[in-house]
């Protein structure tokens, strides 16, 4: 299938592999980037724990190498973009830029720069909408649930990173590791408020307020999205789109509402 595509220049070839979801090369590109994001995020968490210096050195250099790869990805995506100004201010390139900035601004001595590392997890948002990455999930409702779970997980991960950064140095006994920050975030978002961890810095309190407001908005919104999907599913029939895999459509639908692919010819009877 990949051989059918004719590329006029290198830009078209690179852009194809970034955007393609059908060929093996396109999917492999996605999975490599996803794998690097996951590895980098795991390293970020591990580095919050006391480690032997040799191991810390290896992990930090591995993380820096991944950031360099992400830098090349960012540059290449910008290079192949037809409308560069529009691309620059798109949400995904902004997240990509934020993810690599700590590597290049770390030498400035600005402590807040390191907090940007936690946002690298958000790079996965670009890929979660591509259904081929979870194509084994045949039920559309389950796919929606997976997407919602990822959004909530990302919110908890970023919030925990912000809490760890703002509280660890000033309150190391309460927020000693990243897990402590995750525990605090979950307890706070669930409005349980056990009180065993209390932010003492102004920045930590601001993050907590934003976290609570975000949870009040995000959680009901995501639940409503899932419930609406369930309600809509009861009024549709199973017609599987051969292109994107969307399984339920209106009875009289001739084109997929997700990708626009033809489901059947307009003159089809029944």
Give your account of this protein's structure.
The protein is globular, with a radius of gyration of 22 Å. The chain folds into 2 domains: 1-131, Four Helix Bundle (Hemerythrin (Met), subunit A), CATH 1.20.120; 160-231, Orthogonal Bundle (Helix Hairpins), CATH 1.10.287. It has helices at residues 10-19, 24-46, 53-80, 84-88, 91-105, 125-128, 140-167, 178-189, 202-233; strands at residues 237-238, 248-249. The chain is 58% helix and 1% strand. A two-stranded antiparallel sheet has the order 1-2. With 270 residues, the chain is mainly alpha-helical.
| Unreliable residue runs | 265-270
**Structurally, how many domains make up the residues?**
2
Which oligomerization state do the chains in this entry correspond to? single chain
Shape descriptor reads globular
- Classify the beta-strand content into a percent band: under 5%
Main sheet attributes: strand count, strand direction, barrel closure: 2 strands, antiparallel
Q: Spell the H/E element sequence.
A: HHHHHHHHHEE
- Calculate Rg over CA atoms: 22 Å
The computed structural class is: mainly alpha
CATH structural architecture of the largest domain: Up-down Bundle
Short description:
Helix content is 58%, strand content 1%. With 270 residues, it is an all-alpha fold. The chain has two domains: 1-131, Four Helix Bundle (Hemerythrin (Met), subunit A) (Up-down Bundle), CATH 1.20.120; 160-231, Orthogonal Bundle (Helix Hairpins).
């Amino acid at each position: 299938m990949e051989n059918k595509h004719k590329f006029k220049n290198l830009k078209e070839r690179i852009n194809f592999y970034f955007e393609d979801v059908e060929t093996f090369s396109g999917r492999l590109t996605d999975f490599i980037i996803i794998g690097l994001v996951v590895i980098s995020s795991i390293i970020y968490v591990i580095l919050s724990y006391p480690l032997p210096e040799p191991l810390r050195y290896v992990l930090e250099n591995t993380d820096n190498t991944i950031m360099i790869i992400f830098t090349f990805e960012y540059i290449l995506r910008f290079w192949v973009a037809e409308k560069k100004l529009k691309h620059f201010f798109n949400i995904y390139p902004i997240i990509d830029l934020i993810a690599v900035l700590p590597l290049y601004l770390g030498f400035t001595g600005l402590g807040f720069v390191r907090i940007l590392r936690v946002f690298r997890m958000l790079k996965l948002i670009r890929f979660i909408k591509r259904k081929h990455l979870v194509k084994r999930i045949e039920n559309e409702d389950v796919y929606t649930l997976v997407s919602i779970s990822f959004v909530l997980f990302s919110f908890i991960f970023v919030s925990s990173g912000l809490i760890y950064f703002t509280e660890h140095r000033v309150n190391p006994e309460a927020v000693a590791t990243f897990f402590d920050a995750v525990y605090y975030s979950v307890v706070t978002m669930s409005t349980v408020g056990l009180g065993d961890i209390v932010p003492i810095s102004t920045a930590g309190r601001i993050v907590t307020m934003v976290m609570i407001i975000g949870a009040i908005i995000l959680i009901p919104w995501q639940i409503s999205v899932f419930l609406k999907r369930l309600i809509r599913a009861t009024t549709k029939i199973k017609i599987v789109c051969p292109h994107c895999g969307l399984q339920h459509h209106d009875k009289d639908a001739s084109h997929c509402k997700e990708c626009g692919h033809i489901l059947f010819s307009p003159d089809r009877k029944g």
